[in-house]
Amino acid sequence: MSVDEFLKRSYDYVIIGGGTAGLVLAARLSEDPNVTVGVLEAGGNRLGDPLVDAPNLFLQLWDKPEYDWCYKTVPQKGTGGRVHGWARGKALGGSSAINYNMFSMASRQDLDNWAELGNPGWGFDDLAPYYRKFETYNTPSKTLSTKINDSYIDPLLRGPDGPVQISFCETDFQWFQEVWPPTCINAGLPIPKDPRTGSALGGFNQLNTVDPKTMKRSYSANAYYEPNSSRINLSVLTNALVAKIEFEKGGGSEATATGVQFLVDGTSHTVKASKEVVVCGGVVNSPQILELSGIGSSKLLDKVGIDVVVDNEGVGENLNDHAACGISLQVKDEYPTAEVILRNPEIAQQAMEAYLNHKAGPFTNAPTTVGFFSLEMVDPNLADPEKHVRSLISDHHKQRPDSDPAGRDAVLAKSVLSPKEAIGQCVFLGVGMDKNHGDTPSKLFVHDAPGNWISLGICSTRSFSRGSIHIESSDPTKHPIIDPAYYAHPLDLDIAGRSVMYALKLAHVEPLASTLKKDDEGNLILHPSWKGGWPKTLDKAKEFAAENTVTEYHPVGTCAMLPREKGGVVNNECKVYGTSNVRVVDASIFPTHVQGNIVSLVYAVSEKAADIIKGT
Description:
The protein is α/β, with parallel strands linked by helices. It has a domain at 162-216 and 322-551: Glucose Oxidase, domain 3 (2-Layer Sandwich).
């Protein structure tokens, strides 16, 4: 659709961002033929693009402006002063178009935490129906079922007919998918249950967002938008960068949005919204758009010359990300890893042809091997865990007494101390990682160390460190300042260090141990990008974690759904405080983090938000 065609139409709802959340809302709101919906997306339409469709080609999308916002953080004190590259999707489908395709589930405690913090209607039982609503679970063949050991899945807890397809890959199988589950059992981890029961401890092969019939990525653009693109009451404009929300001059105590100003090829346009403006820009763009529109801290807005519409210091605060510490170990030559493809253009071309012509080969199989472990599992010998955890929280609060107005830390401490909750996620990847490339995500798994490698990504589940995202200019084309404050909270680094030591113990358990190479002294071989030797003490493991941490690409929280007096930006109906008709719907409203990959929760939250909007 051209700009002129888009502007000729009138809209009840204008949605800012045609990403993971925005296209869910667009599809659900436009189900009513009497409602008109307009979507503004800064990126392009990549439907049918093989680089997006192929489940295991996501590295080819990162750091390319036609797919990726190419964000970078400020240098992080907690990770040795390193800058971290943040790949975020810039296309129809947003980050669901460029992610790993990994499909997790928040725990019962994760979501009940949201309700406890002042968000009635957002607990585990409230969101469970929406998980089922958006998905179709595809049962694997008997042959594959045996190989991947999917017995933990309960099909009755899974959605039968939703837009997003989830499955296990039938056309490619990696040796570590078979090795990982028995290794975790032999290490003493519990036999896993379906995460839909509310808990996900143990090691298993995780589902992917892949359509097994077409072997294509299943994401919001082809799941929610494409089947509904012919609706006459749904209009989508791509390559349109939103500059700000426009508000009615004067009026009552609440600001009323009248439309959205946006740029196409540098030219400014304005589209009107007769009912609501819904911001779905994601964790980076949503607070940026609110601040550009005059919603945020008056001190910041005055500094950049933006008139204050709503003074709210919570906008852009409470940034919370999953930190991921990569432990790369060399494997024996007979166990193939991604280095075979990454280092050999001829083999890479063959793999691409296998995908394009036969929908087969390594580009069809996204990462599946994961594990979730509790504090009790990680360190069963920790003396008085409750005293240890609460003392670290207390020490942090003494240094930063205003850092936790919502009381998140006390709520999250219960999750850390619970034997049913995971303090960490281990993602097993069949490729080596060089942390020195953490500022350029597309190069993170490109390295010069000879041989074949695996990586155990030790990821946080509920980080206590909270940073911020804020504009430094009124220019919408300039990226905001991103400061995730990795390891600013001492408990995060403590948990990371203990998790590193635990993961290294896992690597000595069969059958995984037999796949790994050893040096002349019989030790497993760590990637040479780490110069500090084998981490044998907790202090050394903490040092290792800080030096080898990157993002897991799961930022949340910058427009938190909380009571306003506790730092909230939106209420439990996703409405922005101080406005009558502006909402935010995406991962930026998550009040606290949850375990595992978050795309499933973005879908569930968006489905629920659509019902809230339609109900009102």
